[in-house]
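wait is this the right file?? whatever heres the structure
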């Protein structure tokens, strides 16, 4: 685990399972139909139970780059912030801006709900194919900039699945901080 302070707030990188986090909210790398799916999305829906899907059905959908909030169901986290990242097409179809917006809008939803903590997965780097080095730079830059300003958030944690993803985020964080 890596932890450091930004403007009296904490940014953490951990390797692990996002469904086990005790933060106020966890972010879900959702699909635009909010229907559950594979990877992080499927794991969150399975662990959280049917209350999450019921809340998603009421919302209906979420366009790429946007974010919505639901109950956390059976999760330790009280809320799930569902955000839709871009599918990688080589970076030529606005993917960086969509990914940036997915993180920004998730943070904005956190602020609107006066949350103190959120855990993020690495959005769009699984089946959506976004290169981890580029995605981690966007994710960390957006979060660091957000924490440098006024915020209700006291903790932002990236929960990374597997050592390769964790190592990529550590490398990017070291690059940003140097």
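ok assuming it is, sequence goes like this
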């Amino acid at each position: 685990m890596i932890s450091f302070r930004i403007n009296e707030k904490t940014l953490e990188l951990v390797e692990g399972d996002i469904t086990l986090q005790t933060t106020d909210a966890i972010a879900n790398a959702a699909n635009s139909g909010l229907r559950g799916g594979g990877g992080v999305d499927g794991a969150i829906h399975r662990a959280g139970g049917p209350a999450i899907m019921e809340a998603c059905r009421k919302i209906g959908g979420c366009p790429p780059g946007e974010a919505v909030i639901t109950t956390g169901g059976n999760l330790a986290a009280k809320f799930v912030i569902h955000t839709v990242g871009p599918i990688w097409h080589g970076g030529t179809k606005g993917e960086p801006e969509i990914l940036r917006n997915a993180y920004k809008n998730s943070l904005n939803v956190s602020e609107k709900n006066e949350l103190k903590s959120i855990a993020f997965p690495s959005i769009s780097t699984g089946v959506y194919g976004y290169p981890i080095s580029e995605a981690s730079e966007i994710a960390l830059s957006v979060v660091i900039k957000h924490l440098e300003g006024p915020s209700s958030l006291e903790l932002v944690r990236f929960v990374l699945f597997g050592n390769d993803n964790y190592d990529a985020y550590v490398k990017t964080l070291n690059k940003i901080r140097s």
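The two ends are 19 Å apart (CA to CA). so i think its the right one actually
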